[in-house]
Design a protein that fits this description.
The chain starts with 6 loop residues before the first helix and ends in a 14-residue tail after the last strand. The relative contact order is 0.15. It folds into three domains: about 230 residues, Rossmann fold (3-Layer(aba) Sandwich); about 200 residues, Dimethylsulfoxide Reductase, domain 2 (3-Layer(aba) Sandwich); about 140 residues, Barwin-like endoglucanases (Beta Barrel), CATH 2.40.40. About 30% of the residues lie in helices and about 15% in strands. It has about 725 residues and is of the alpha/beta class. The protein has 29 helices and 27 strands. Strand 6, helix 5 and strand 7 form a beta-alpha-beta unit. It has a seven-stranded mixed beta sheet with strand order 5-4-17-16-15-6-7, with helices on one face. The protein has a six-stranded mixed beta barrel with strand order 22-26-23-25-24-27. It has a four-stranded parallel beta sheet with strand order 11-10-9-13.
Length: about 725
């Protein structure tokens, strides 16, 4: 075990009577934070940030602090259960792990034999670092269908950055950018993949200029040199307008463009289609503000863009990402110290190799649901969720008979929630692994008790692009809970894949570390490992793209039949694209703003977290509230063309009166009825998942921008959750 440099650890152990302290690595959200876990009488007594950790330097958010409440929650599932009676009945019986895994494996082999392996879909959500082991199991089974958040969360960033410059460009906060543009991100709250709010805040304190692109006046926006409160869904138009300024005013890095860019002439023609007058009209932003931001970013070096998932959950998903990478690239901030760096990972067997992607037979890969339509997603083994629901409900292009969801709650987290619910009701067999009997788990046939990060050994962050590996050390055992990695390792043996798995999953950890010449037992004695840090690597070897250059004009997208240059598409529902609908639903609804304590649909059982935020909240501008007869704190109805839900109104003047901002992921574990009120405040009752509303290459569902109306609950005779409201 690594030695502690801080004497206060020993002092706290003596004062409070702790028995031991273990260094580990939190995974209550996107991960990365080093922690000190204090134990007493074999249980976790306290969790604190680890000052030695290079990711968080001792800081820790409310989710990490509340990990103990999750691990020991009285409602937590601690043994496998099998449903008794119809789906959603809420009746379960305890079974053994052997019976549970034997049943699941037996069903898989039966469906594979009768309908093909593609009839089985595995799925996972955000936050457990289980993607590599899930893909390994799926690929060895022969199913190309793994349902993830990757079609509209982080996956698009990886997919588009690989085809543009070879890897995901990460902000080099360690070397303090002189200008930071935060775009659709609130990282001091969300701590997104590869980032924590602390180093960003340190860069601001060191004097970085700040540009914030966000429809809402966040704390970051209030601190910004330039705040751009754009019309929701118009990010790509704004980025192309800023690129227009940089190109026409010759503010780009001419040496980089001349020597390392592919498609410059065509790119210039495209950005010339977005003059500032046009962009200002589209985005609701003054042209002078757009020009000010473009000039500040292009002339203050090094500069970096901190972008978030909000720009990926819309029809412009892939082009949003590509336009922002164009801003990084042509200003000379790609792979630059203090800019956006293509960090090297340590020499390990990475996610791609561990996931056994090359072991999926080609004829099976060709059967991937939606792969012929969303080819960028399909190239990275990502599928659009509606393809799965259609295959269950309509059995097209073939029937899906079985689902196995791990750490996923799609009834709350996916668009068009009622369609999701119908599909999960109909599917012949479903297994779920999770901490609690969630609304999704209640529709399952078997539910497995998953382990928290406190209950597993693992190599943390080995799939990320910031270059670090950190050991997650097991501290406790709760009931019969098992990590996702352990349960799939065991299931692999039962499903006929035994030669590709290990007697114990520690062998899998050894496999990951094998190229480094070490084992898990070696690594767990260390604080972390970091890959070699080197800047401007492209000068020696080019970029890892087909042309070996930074591709503003994507040769791969062209080969797949898509526009090789970024373009702007109007949102599927907006004042411009659907003017008649806008008359009936006169507000633009944005959804999914991040909250400090919740992680998507998780943590609403935890008292420390829920006390901070007891109710679902919709933000409404005071002018709009007055117009609609709404008082601060009222329960209101939010309605779209697909249904309605209720949330509590909070008057907020920090956005345009034409915009409404609602929260996502809401259900009520305290409601002990089956379903736990999943359709009461679930914003995805309102969202749409029609194929024509999705990003054409990535399949990203447009859940962040739609049209709605809002009114006091007391004035409505409609039942909350109605599918169609007249």
């Amino acid at each position: 075990m690594a030695e502690f440099k801080y004497t206060n650890v020993e002092r706290e152990m003596e004062v409070y009577g702790f028995d031991a302290v273990v260094k580990s690595h939190c995974r209550m959200c996107h991960g990365g934070c080093g922690v000190l876990v204090y134990t007493k009488d074999g249980k976790v007594a306290k969790i604190a940030g680890d000052p030695d950790c290079p990711i968080n330097h001792g800081t820790l958010c409310s989710k990490g602090l509340a990990s103990t409440q999750l691990a020991y929650h009285p409602d937590r599932l601690t043994y496998p259960v099998r449903r008794i009676g119809p789906k959603g009945s809420g009746k379960w019986e305890r079974i053994s792990w052997d019976e549970a895994l034997d049943t699941i494996a037996g069903r898989m082999l039966d469906y594979k034999d009768r309908f093909g392996a593609e009839s089985i879909v595995l799925g996972y959500g955000t936050g457990r670092e289980n993607e590599a082991v899930i893909y390994r199991f799926a690929n060895l089974l022969g199913t190309p269908n793994v349902l993830t958040a990757g079609h509209f969360c982080y996956g698009p960033r990886i997919a588009t950055s690989i085809i543009t410059c070879g890897s995901n460009p990460i902000v080099d906060y360690e070397n303090n950018p002189k200008c930071i543009m935060v775009w659709g991100n609130n990282l001091t709250i969300s701590n997104p993949d590869c980032y924590k709010g602390e180093p960003f805040s340190n860069s601001l304190n060191a004097g970085a200029r700040l540009i914030v692109v966000d429809p809402r006046l966040t704390r970051l926006a209030a601190r910004a040199d330039v705040w751009l409160p754009l019309r929701p869904g118009t990010d790509t138009a704004l980025a192309l307008g800023m690129l227009n300024v940089i190109v026409t005013e010759n503010l780009f890095d001419q040496e980089f463009v001349a020597g390392h860019v592919y498609g410059w002439e065509q790119f210039v023609e495209r950005v010339n289609e977005y003059p500032l007058d046009k962009v200002a009209e589209i985005t609701w932003l003054p042209r002078d503000k757009i020009k000010q931001a473009a000039r500040l970013f292009a002339t203050t070096r090094p500069a970096a863009i901190q972008w978030g998932v909000a720009i990926e959950q819309q029809i412009n998903c892939a082009d949003n990402n590509r336009a922002l990478m164009a801003l990084m690239g042509i200003t000379g901030n790609i792979d630059a110290k203090g800019g956006q760096v293509l960090f090297n990972s340590p020499k390990i067997n990475n996610v791609g190799k561990f996931g056994a992607h090359r072991m999926l037979p080609h004829q099976q890969a060709e059967k991937r649901l939606g792969g012929d339509r969303f080819r960028l997603a399909g190239n990275f083994a990502i599928i659009n969720p509606k393809c799965v629901w259609d295959a269950i409900l309509d059995e097209k292009p073939y029937p899906v008979k079985m689902l196995f969801f791990i750490s996923s709650n799609p009834v709350l987290s996916r668009a068009n929630a009622r369609e999701v619910y119908r599909a999960l009701e109909k599917v012949e067999f479903m297994a779920v692994a999770d901490f609690f009997l969630t609304p999704t788990a209640e529709l399952a046939d078997i539910v497995l008790p998953a382990a928290t990060w406190l209950e597993m050994d693992y190599i943390g962050d080995f799939w990320k692009r910031h270059g670090y590996l950190l050991p997650r050390r097991k501290v406790i055992q709760v009931g019969e809970c098992r990590s996702d990695h352990e349960m799939l390792n065991d299931l692999g043996h039962r499903a006929g894949q035994g030669e590709h798995w290990w007697d114990e999953f520690e062998g899998g950890l050894d496999y990951i570390l094998e190229p480094l010449g070490m084992t898990w037992q070696d690594f767990k004695k260390m604080d972390y490992i970091r890959g070699q840090v080197k800047y401007q690597k492209y000068k020696d070897r080019g970029f890892s793209t087909p042309t070996k250059k930074f591709e503003l004009y994507s040769t791969l997208l062209e080969n797949w039949g898509y526009d090789p240059l970024p373009q702007y598409r109007e949102a599927p529902e907006s004042p411009l694209s659907t003017p008649e609908l806008y008359k009936q639903y006169p507000y633009i609804l944005i959804s999914g703003r991040r909250l400090p304590g919740f992680f998507h649909t998780e943590n609403r059982q935890l008292s420390w977290i829920r006390e901070l935020h007891p109710d679902p909240v919709v933000e409404i501008h005071p002018e709009t509230a007055q117009k609609e007869g709404i008082q601060d704190g009222d329960w209101v109805i939010i309605e779209s063309a697909r249904g309605n839900v209720r949330q509590r109104a909070k008057l907020f003047g920090g956005m345009d009166p034409r915009v409404i901002s609602a929260e996502h992921g809401w259900w009520f574990p305290e409601n002990k009825d089956p379903g736990h009120g999943w359709d009461e405040s679930n914003i995805n009752i309102l969202t749409d998942n029609a194929y024509e509303s999705c990003d054409p290459a990535m399949g990203a569902t447009s859940v962040r921008t739609l049209l709605c109306k809002v009114y006091p609950e007391k004035s409505s005779d409609a039942k909350v959750g109605d599918e169609v409201v007249k």
